[in-house]
Amino acid sequence: MKIAVVILNWNGIKLLEQFLPSVIQFSPEATVYVADNASTDESVAFVKKNFPSVMIVQNKTNQGFAGGYNDALHSIDADIYALVNSDIEVTNNWLKPILETFESETETAIIQPKILDFKKKNYFEYAGAAGGFIDQFGYPFCRGRIFDTLEKDNGQYNDKVDIFWASGACFFIRSTVYKELKGFDEDFFAHQEEIDLCWRAINKEYKIKYISDSIVYHVGGATLQQANPQKTYLNFRNSLLMLTKNLPQNTLFQVLIIRMLLDGIAGIKFVFEGQFTHFWAVIRAHFSFYSLFLKNYKKREKNQVKIYFKTRSVVFEYYVKNGTVFVDVI
Question: How far is CA 86 from CA 11, 24, 38, 129, in A?
């Protein structure tokens, strides 16, 4: 199978200097690409000079994660796309179990490796950990990460299992499926676009897998810190857009109303914590969602598969029942 490792870059020269060598060293099966999202630093010149084996795709504008990958992948020929954040350190033989699974399981369309914390390597990392799920109100959580609580890697997720969503930090997808689904939804710009894409794949009856034999380490927050209000804005808005597009019709409006009420509670919590910029981010997210609702409602597929969620409300399990690990909330 022909595999392309594609690293989306935006003004990330320091990250490329630190992490690109491991990708080149441990990816002999792949062609490595840097997809530059209209950087204004010397990223492109740096890669050309120091890593001549790396192919470069230059996007004309910065359209975030979603648009950036959509633009770049148009010009990349491969059977498998490995979309890798610029702050990922890969390990020896990380590609082998992924490729073996794609070759032997034709119904598997998307795969995620084990994602550990680069700064604390015996713990799971926030963005994906050991594979993602959502509750029925659209709140994402992972095996190994519930909200901001991260589990230590004690081998409890050393397995190969079906998951609901794979992390965009290190995301493998068949190119045929990517094209069938028309890539990421560019209305999302960044954050949760990979969950939306996975949900749309599930609606097409494809499978998504987590494979622990492939291990990477992720810095996390290198482009947009967790505490940044813009991240709050994108996460709240995009979660509502994702529900609008993918929930079965008979539950859509009921769930949206409950989710918006929960968002209101989250906004009030931000006020009491003195985080007024995050409160305003929630308000902005809702007004943006209202403006995009009809456009995204029209994107709904004819076949919306009924999802059996792992938990009704991860918010309730975490904040009320103090469930801090995956087995506590399912």
Answer: 10, 13, 15, 17
